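This part of the workshop introduces the protein records we will be handling. Backbone structure tokens are a discrete shorthand for how the chain folds in space. Once this layout is familiar, the rest of the handout is easier to follow. The record below serves as our worked example for the rest of this section.
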Amino acid sequence: MSDRDVVLLGFALILAAALVALSVTRLRRDSVAALGETIAYLTGTRATRIIAVLLWAWLGWHFLAR
């Protein structure tokens, strides 16, 4: 198995986990918060929004810039 295959498998597993999480939030709305609600809660203050932007920029710089 090559490095490329491992990376593709990792992305496939992340996608599968996201789909499972989405399904759980759709089926159990009373006990599990949706992704949008969770993100809105986490970025509720100015400090956490700044941290989120810096984290997003760091991830983009390290994993997407070539």
Summary: The first helix runs from residue 3 to 27. DSSP finds three helices and no strands in the chain. Helices lie at 3-27, 35-42, 46-63. The mean pLDDT is 87.
